[in-house]
Each structure stands twice: as structure tokens, then as C-alpha cells.
Specification:
Helices cover 27% and strands 26% of the residues. By secondary structure, the chain is an alpha+beta fold. The model has no long low-confidence stretch (mean pLDDT 95).
């Protein structure tokens, strides 16, 4: 006999685990199970992410979803003493004059919504980040690459990094303590469709019958049945949704990270820049060109470097299950990323690459905001567009409210958020423009 649950949650990344945690916490009498093809939590793209969080967005929706989640993570670490590896190092966007002008409406909206930002001018940046090049003058290489000068910067102090596996562990432990179960090494091969009311006749469900998702089929083992299936499969949503005729509203893109040694006086000095935060580390720095960015990882004595390249980076509708198929490209770092990075920060020019890896962003190509929508007995959460960690707690609370058929979710801190805003039937969100 197939096992039956009240709720099946597919996916043990941050979105799936936060959903499971809040679902079980708010419905302790329900039998729930998290199903994942890996052998432990956070083994997919969650474990390959840059592990950053911010509340600095142009969209008011993103602001409230992220800010509430960040407050919850700070509550865990600072008040409950739950170690989630959180470091509030801040985000620093380096910009030229034109970029600063274009950012003014976004910054004003952030200020009006209580999101703190700080503006720095060029002289202060030169002092705070010694060794940074802010003016290129007649540099032929800079002109060829179209590199803007650095005229100022926007700093988000309530931003930083955390450990995704530790955060996932918190949600998983809380879910299990509340009575939730896990089914690891269990690959969901399909969503099972059945009639809302079984008549016991051949060929059910027929076109004239109302249907529902009644469970999940597994590649190896008996199917699992449930009254509700929550699908939080990240980049792999389409694989399960398209065969049952539901639009997943998501596409994946490969993203790469490069761990670079912070050796030598200049690199170590940059790593331990002391004027941006109380930790005494450099912030996450976003350069004015091509989305190139780096962050300090002091425990490894290195920087993690990335680039949010859009052109020539193909979308993947249904990714391969084996993430090792998506390899980081050493030539891409040397040919495309390093020339920009070393132009602004020459100390990176001869720094060696310690490690490199790749993962997948699950983009909602409509407006770069996450979604949570219901389709009868199916609830789908995803499209976080690379910001699942920073909005994960809020999305988990929205999923729990959708399950209980509530019109509003109560986010951490007490803010009310209308769940229909990030659905698709009555979607009402501000598209995100401040994309890294």
C-alpha cells in the first residue's frame, strides 16, 4: 500500500525546507514528508549558491519579503544563538555618476520603506578601499572594455552572507521535531493525477471528471499519496509541471563562482577592510561593469568572485539531474571576469584560483520576483531568481498561509503580506530592476 500523508513537500533546499518548517509548525496535527533525490538537505543549488542576503531592492515586494527574512535570520543568530553562519558585512555597489543618478528613485523608495542605505563619494572610497582604481584616464584597455570610472557607491549595511547548510539544518531540525518526516534518496519522477471523486471505472480520470494532484511517483519505490503536494523543486520545476499541463514560469541559467586566494599584503588588506562593518571584513563589492562582484570568505583566506552574465548564457528549461554536468569554466574567469576585476582592483591580477564551481539560478523571467501559486491540490513555490536564501523564510510563511487558504501571510516581525500578490491569477507586484 502506498504511504499517505496530508502534505508532501518536494525539494529539500531553502524554499522547500522553510515551507515544510512553517507548514508543520502551523499545522502540527498534519502528517508531512519532505522528499528529495539527494541524501541530505541543501545538496542541490542551495549548497552551490553564493550564500548572500540583502534587503536592497527596487521592488517594494522584494524589499518586504527579503527584509522580513533577514530579520528572522538575525533573530536566530543574535537572540536565539542559533549559528547560521551569518555575517552582516554589507553590500557595496560601485557606480559612476550616470548609474548613481539612475539609482536615485530606487534609493528614495528604499528609504521611504525603511531600508537603510549609505552613499559614499570617491574620496572616501579611496581611503576605505586602498588600492582600488577609480579613474582610468586614457587607459586603452579600460576604453576598449567600456569600464566606467567610480564616482561613488551605495552601501547596504543590513546585507551580508550566511551558511546555507546551517540555515537548512535549522529548518530541517525544526520540521523533524514538530513531527515531520524525510524521504531522502527518493527521486520524484512524476506528479500523479487522479479524479477528485473516484468512481471505480476504467480509464479514470476522464475529461468530464474534476482532477487533482493526488501524490508523487518515485523512480524507485512505491508512490506517495497526499491531500496536498507542495512543489519547491527550484530549477527542476518544469520537469514535473509540464507533463501535467501546468506552467512553471521558470527557466534556469548556469552561474559560476571562483574562489581566489587572498595572499599578499594588498589582498589581505582588502580582505580585512575595517571601515564598513563591525566584523572587520570587506563588504560584498559589486563593480560598475557586467555584474562582476566579490565577497570575503575569511575562514578560507580567500575571496569568492562571480559575474552575472546575461548575454550568451543560455536558458535551460529542464536541467540535468547531475549538477556536475554544469562545470565552472577557467577560461571564462581568465578571459572575461579577471580583466574587469583586475582593472578596478589590480591586486587580483596575479592571485591564484583555489577552486571553482557552478550551479543554477531558477529565474522567473516575467519580473524577477518569486512566486507561490495554488493549482487545486498543488502548491508551487519558486522563481526566486537567485535570491531564494534571502527571501526563503518569507516564502515559507506564504506557502503555509496558501495551504491554510488565508488571504494574508504574517511575516516575521508582524508585517501582513497578501499572498495573491505573488501568485499568478491576481499577480500584483513591482518588477525588480536592481538585479545583480
Amino acid at each position: 500500500m502506498p504511504a499517505r500523508y496530508d502534505v508532501i513537500i518536494v525539494g529539500a533546499g531553502i524554499t522547500g525546507l522553510a515551507s515544510a518548517y512553517h507548514l508543520q509548525k502551523n499545522s502540527p496535527d498534519k502528517r508531512m514528508v519532505v522528499v528529495d533525490r539527494f541524501g541530505a538537505v541543501a545538496q542541490g543549488n542551495t549548497g552551490r549558491s553564493n550564500s548572500m542576503f540583502r534587503n536592497t531592492f527596487s521592488s517594494s515586494d522584494n524589499q518586504v519579503l527579503a527584509d522580513s527574512s533577514v530579520d528572522f535570520y538575525l533573530h536566530l543568530q543574535e537572540e536565539l544563538k542559533v549559528d547560521v553562519g551569518l555575517q552582516k558585512i554589507g553590500y557595496l555597489w560601485l557606480m559612476n555618476e550616470a548609474q548613481l543618478r539612475r539609482s536615485e528613485p530606487y534609493l528614495e523608495k528604499m528609504r521611504s520603506n525603511g531600508v537603510e542605505t549609505v552613499l559614499y563619494e570617491r574620496p572616501a572610497l579611496r581611503r576605505m578601499l586602498p588600492g582600488m582604481v577609480t579613474e582610468f584616464g586614457a587607459s586603452e584597455d579600460a576604453r576598449m572594455m567600456g569600464l566606467p570610472d567610480v564616482d561613488g557607491a551605495v552601501f547596504g549595511p543590513k546585507c551580508g552572507r550566511l551558511d546555507p547548510e546551517k540555515l537548512a539544518g535549522f529548518y530541517a531540525d525544526g520540521f523533524a521535531k514538530a513531527g515531520g518526516k524525510f524521504a531522502f534518496n527518493s527521486e520524484v519522477s512524476a506528479l500523479m493525477i487522479g479524479p477528485t471523486k473516484r468512481l471505480g471505472i476504467e480509464g479514470e480520470p476522464h475529461v468530464w471528471q474534476e482532477t487533482r494532484i493526488e501524490g508523487v511517483a518515485l523512480s524507485d519505490g512505491e508512490p506517495l499519496l497526499a491531500d496536498t503536494v507542495v512543489l519547491a523543486g527550484g530549477a527542476w520545476l518544469n520537469e514535473l509541471l509540464e507533463p501535467v499541463g501546468v506552467d512553471g514560469h521558470v527557466k534556469a541559467k548556469k552561474r559560476q563562482l571562483f574562489s581566489v586566494y587572498a595572499k599578499g599584503q594588498d589582498m589581505e588588506g582588502l580582505l580585512r577592510s575595517r571601515e564598513f562593518n563591525s566584523i572587520g571584513l570587506a563588504p560584498m563589492v559589486i563593480l560598475p561593469k557586467a555584474g562582476v562582484h566579490f565577497k570575503p570568505v575569511s575562514e578560507e583566506g580567500c575571496f569568492w568572485v562571480g559575474c552575472e552574465d546575461e548575454i550568451n548564457r543560455q536558458f535551460v528549461n529542464i536541467p540535468d539531474h547531475d549538477l556536475e554536468k554544469y562545470q565552472a569554466e577557467a577560461e571564462y574567469y581568465q578571459r572575461d571576469v579577471l580583466p574587469i576585476l583586475s582593472a578596478y582592483f589590480p591586486m587580483f591580477r596575479d592571485a591564484g584560483v583555489k577552486a571553482m564551481w557552478a550551479g543554477l539560478y531558477a529565474y522567473n523571467t516575467l519580473d524577477n520576483l518569486p512566486f507561490v501559486f495554488r493549482n487545486h491540490s498543488l502548491i508551487v513555490a519558486g522563481g526566486d531568481s537567485g535570491s531564494g536564501i534571502m527571501k526563503g523564510d518569507s516564502l515559507g510563511r506564504v506557502v503555509a498561509s496558501v495551504y491554510r487558504e488565508e488571504k494574508e501571510a504574517t511575516l516575521y516581525g508582524g508585517a501582513k503580506y497578501k499572498v495573491s500578490k505573488i501568485g499568478f491569477e491576481r499577480r500584483d507586484v513591482e518588477p525588480e530592476a536592481w538585479v545583480i
